[in-house]
Specification:
Number of strands: 11
Shape: elongated
Strand content: over 45%
Mean pLDDT: 96
Largest sheet: 7 strands, mixed
Low-confidence stretches: none
Helix content: under 10%
Radius of gyration: 14 Å
Structural class: mainly beta
Number of helices: 0
Oligomer: single chain
Length: 122
């Protein structure tokens, strides 16, 4: 059993900043890729940023230069530093962790958190 929990969402004014955290716990042998996604009302869930196990980041064009993804492998935790926030960044933000739960099977499963609301409004 693996649990993934996001935190750090809230209400912020345009131009402001927020830092999201995503913590994975439970039966974890190793975590491969992790990522942040977001879903605005009436829209599909889109990828925001991803990071490999080695910390190599990849960003959606809409957040490049404003958002920074990072991870602490020792803590099984990932972060999303969001700066220069815009109203169009308003969404529920979800994180995922691609987890290998045992050393022998090599199988990897994707786990999702429940999401954290980010609202950018004056």
């Amino acid at each position: 059993q693996v649990q993934v929990v996001e935190s750090g969402g809230g209400l912020v004014q345009p131009g402001g900043s927020l830092r999201l955290s995503c913590a994975a716990s439970g039966s974890i042998f190793s975590i491969n890729a992790m990522g942040w996604h977001r879903q605005a009302p009436g829209k599909q869930r889109d990828v925001v940023a991803t990071t490999t196990s080695g910390g190599m980041p990849n960003y959606a064009d809409s957040v490049k230069g404003r958002f920074t993804i990072s991870r602490d492998n020792a803590k099984n935790t990932m972060y999303l530093e969001m700066n220069s926030l815009k109203p169009e960044d308003t969404a529920v933000y979800y994180c995922n962790a691609d987890v290998q739960t045992d050393a022998h099977s090599g199988r990897i499963f994707r786990y999702w958190g429940q999401g954290t609301q980010v609202t950018v409004s004056s």
